[in-house]
């Protein structure tokens, strides 16, 4: 059952239903977002939202799980190069300036005089995923 379904059944705004559930369970509720199975149209609609960013994650903190760090490359190759969902400049804003702002990382995420210059250089035509060549690392410190 979705938050929207619960809100409708209880005659509440979805945000109120969400917060009520979380508070009723002493903030121990685990909410999930069904990322897969919704199709490209729904995913594209979410991606073009001006408040949706790409890349801020704690994936590296979960070392017992597979860290599948392909989303930024997939985003650029599939959504930007192949489907032209938005301009390359808009994509980079979602991948750098927006996450830096959300994370309060001052002087990061943009190329401005005096800021840190975090730059990635790539060939857009050669971006792709190497699923047929997985690499297993055993170099975790400690």
Description:
With about 140 residues, the protein is an all-alpha fold. It has two domains: about 30 residues, no CATH class; about 100 residues, no CATH class. Helices cover about 40% and strands about 0% of the residues. The chain is built from five helices and no strands. The protein is extended and about 50 Å long. The termini are far apart. The model has no long low-confidence stretch (mean pLDDT about 85). InterPro entries: Amidohydro_3, Metal_Hydrolase. This is N-acyl-D-glutamate deacylase. Pfam families: Amidohydro_3.
Summarize the structure.
It comes from Geodia barretti (Barrett's horny sponge). By secondary structure, the protein is mostly helical.
Largest sheet: none
In the residues, how many domains can be counted?
Answer: 2
Helix content: 25-40%
What is the CA-based Rg, rounded?
19 Å
User: What structural class should be given to the helix and strand makeup?
Assistant: mainly alpha
String of helices and strands: HHHHH
Quote the beta fraction. Answer: under 5%
Described by the principal axes of the CA atoms, the overall outline is extended
Q: Please count the helical segments.
A: 5
Low-confidence stretches: none
Mean of residue pLDDT values: 84
Task: Give the N-terminus to C-terminus distance in angstroms.
Answer: 42 Å
């Amino acid at each position: 059952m979705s938050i929207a379904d619960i809100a409708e059944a209880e005659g509440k705004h979805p945000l109120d239903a969400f917060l009520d559930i979380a508070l009723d369970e002493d903030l121990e509720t685990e909410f999930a977002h069904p990322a897969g199975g919704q199709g490209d149209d729904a995913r594209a609609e979410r991606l073009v939202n001006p408040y949706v960013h790409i890349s801020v994650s704690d994936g590296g903190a979960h070392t017992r799980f597979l860290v599948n760090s392909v989303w930024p490359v997939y985003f650029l190759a599939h959504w930007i190069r192949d489907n032209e969902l938005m301009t390359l400049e808009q994509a980079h804003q979602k991948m750098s300036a927006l996450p830096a702002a959300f994370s309060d990382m001052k002087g990061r995420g943009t190329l401005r005089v005096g800021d840190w210059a975090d730059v990635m250089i790539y060939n857009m035509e050669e971006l792709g995923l190497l699923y047929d060549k997985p690499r297993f690392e055993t170099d975790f410190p400690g």
